[in-house]
């Protein structure tokens, strides 16, 4: 098991997200920014910066100093958040959307001028139970469209899906689509949404008819709860869900009536977040209640079809005993940088050099 | 280092207790008597698990016993929650780091304690110490960044330095000098401990003395020099001592004998034998005897000069240094400020090969010369540790900090040295102190999981019941937190707590109108009764609205076929019946309806509605029910009419006009509907015979 670097931050980190490079191209950014959200006692959004490891050779001395002082990232700005931060989605380098335990979706602006700051631009209550109590907004996702005004879609414990343009949250639309808790959401395509539910279902929706389920997928052989979902960055028919039993399920839904599914039992407990590696999508990265990150090679190598024998690399830290709640992989650098947050009040990081690029 | 005195510590705690007050208060400042005169007093209840108190206004006598009307004010109706013990946020990194080490220690010792042995515990102990030092550094850095001194930081730093001193000594006595296969002297470790935890003389003092002196004369004139050199000798800083003696020796003001003996003392200081790991005790003792004899001769020689030249202060100091080096207990006791200093110097110069088991005897000799009633908690804990009085040690450790008593008792338990002390305590000391720490951590929102682990890892029935009782009282703020709590229960095998949490979640979801989620939770604990009630609610909503809207709820909870319940089965089949009917597939609809009735999945009160639903199929253009099917339907109707319970329900339903169509035709009752059903059955039966 490989070791993650740890930086204590004295708050329960519930969500973390890299921000796109400000210049639009990471190769010109020597500093990378990410944003973390916390819950329980400290309900906060914190903006962090860390050196771009692709520039290590240029700034060798600085990096060494940072490593010696055991600082993975430096705090740039912070602001309080209305409720626990359950999810963060970056719309651009200066705009993020957050999901709150009070059922709200909020849009924050990030200022990089003389003094960096985080400021709340707009907030709307998107999730509420029938009896009027606010429902936890469990996840949100920004529409992957090049259009200027993308939509943010959120889901909650009230079983509703909500959509709103990022520029006008007051134009929010909500549809009740599940009777249990919706645990995860993603956009496989700009017009298609996928959600995972506590009842172990994956449901697909067409954005153009958002209240109707276009397909439902269940694994009839096992009794799972799904905790999270994500879509392949380029193959929209591939979805991954994380389960409460520690498995990562890879779905191929090309034939919606007979989807194929492959299970990788890589964790001991609930899988809280899952992603395809942005620069090497043959890998699935997942984090879990068992305090570890797992990097699973899902594409069989050397025609080895036995899923259990495919490579799984586990990452953890001796000083992080509690659940890793969230992680994100920086898609803008050649060096793979994973940043994660945990219940032990730690930020965790792993930097690994990118594998040599080969076209054939 | 300034330290909290024992008495002061208690006063501080008492002050904290008295300083607890509500903000805003329940009555205006200075008007307590006026407020209390109106039959008011304060009542409180302690939280059963954490260090919290609920305070509210109460009447001194019951309201019924008071003749006049009492006005009720809004502040009187509030309940105030206060925390009497709070874990500071500054402690979070320390609590989390040491929790990780604690869990790792339980894990490795649980697997193969013998193989892990003292070496493994020593590694873990070093990690605990590093966490303490890291905490001190973090507190001091934070104070520096804020550029102001804080009383809180000072107190915390003091506590952590005390804890480190105690832990370090415990490590030396029970781990470092107990490594298997080594016959190690405690002296170098004790001196390292002494100089690390009670640094003296301070390097800054030495630097200041050196900086102030341009030459040997100036150095000699510095009044701080000779006390500083004596401290160096006491602490065994021989190289620094030798360097400074050589620096001061050329001073013009220094008498010739003083200069000569300063050089001689510098030489012997440099030559003091140091034990090495590859040297036998015998060989070291031989070297030590030679060196000791030499220092003895030097001390005697200076002593003879000193009697002649009584007005030579440097010579007097040199004599004192020589006396210290030869291990003269009286001189060491006079020069040592702390008992730790004296014990260190005696060990270093009198018993350089002493084992850890000599410490109690030597400590007793040293402590006779100190007034122990002025000792701090730290002193008392250290003395108890040296004397192997673990019961007293744990009590004093607990007074310094819960963390210390919990973790020291844990490591002592792993070492097997706590066993003989268990009889001294009314309860298992390890479990007791771990539970205390767990309770303390539970008072912090971010440390609930850590607190529960300290309960659970005590591996006692009390610990398990504490986990269970705590976890079922925790607020279920979100679905994810509920999952985490269930995970903790599964880790400790608390099936009853899992059931209770699922039931709480089920009720919570039910109240919030999330019926599907509620069914899911009740299904996990097999609460068929609650599931039945929710299904009845869904059925009643259908009857009330006439709209079949529960389909997605049923589909959601029955996904994957993991849930089996008669009522759910009935609702699913009934939904399918409607869909088939709507689609014009009357044969399939009829089969489904018959299956519901024959399998008896429907509740009795729903059967009349099902029979009524059969009427359009019986009276339709095409034959849906065969003769056998019709006989089944008639049998069901017969059984229904014979059931007194259902008869009553039919009458009640008719009276309440539960059926939506009853409003359209008030004259129609269930009895009439059943009559129509019977006629329809008879006609269908006739048709079925003709068709056949």
From TrEMBL, chain A:
Pfam families: WD40
SUPFAM superfamilies noted in UniProt: WD40 repeat-like
Chief place where the protein resides: nucleus
Compartments, as annotated in UniProt: Nucleus
InterPro entries, alphabetized: WD40/YVTN_repeat-like_dom_sf, WD40_repeat_dom_sf, WD40_rpt
Record's GO cellular component terms: nuclear pore outer ring
SMART domains in the record: WD40
Alphabetical keyword list: Nucleus, Repeat, WD repeat
PANTHER family assigned to the protein according to its UniProt record, in alphabetical order: NUCLEOPORIN NUP43
Protein name per Swiss-Prot or TrEMBL: WD40 repeat-like protein
Organism of origin: Coemansia reversa (strain ATCC 12441 / NRRL 1564)
Lineage: Eukaryota, Fungi, Fungi incertae sedis, Zoopagomycota, Kickxellomycotina
UniProtKB/TrEMBL annotation, chain B:
InterPro entries: Nucleoporin_Nup85
Gene Ontology process terms (BP): mRNA export from nucleus; positive regulation of DNA-templated transcription; protein import into nucleus
Main location: nucleus
Gene Ontology CC annotations of this record: nuclear membrane; nuclear pore outer ring
Keywords of this entry: Membrane, mRNA transport, Nuclear pore complex, Nucleus, Protein transport, Translocation, Transport
Any GO molecular function: structural constituent of nuclear pore
Keyword hit for Nucleotide-binding: no
Subcellular localization: Nucleus, Nuclear pore complex
A Pfam match: Nucleopor_Nup85
Subunit structure: Component of the nuclear pore complex (NPC).
Role this protein plays: Functions as a component of the nuclear pore complex (NPC).
Family: Belongs to the nucleoporin Nup85 family.
Protein name per Swiss-Prot or TrEMBL: Nuclear pore complex protein Nup85
Source species of the chain: Coemansia reversa (strain ATCC 12441 / NRRL 1564)
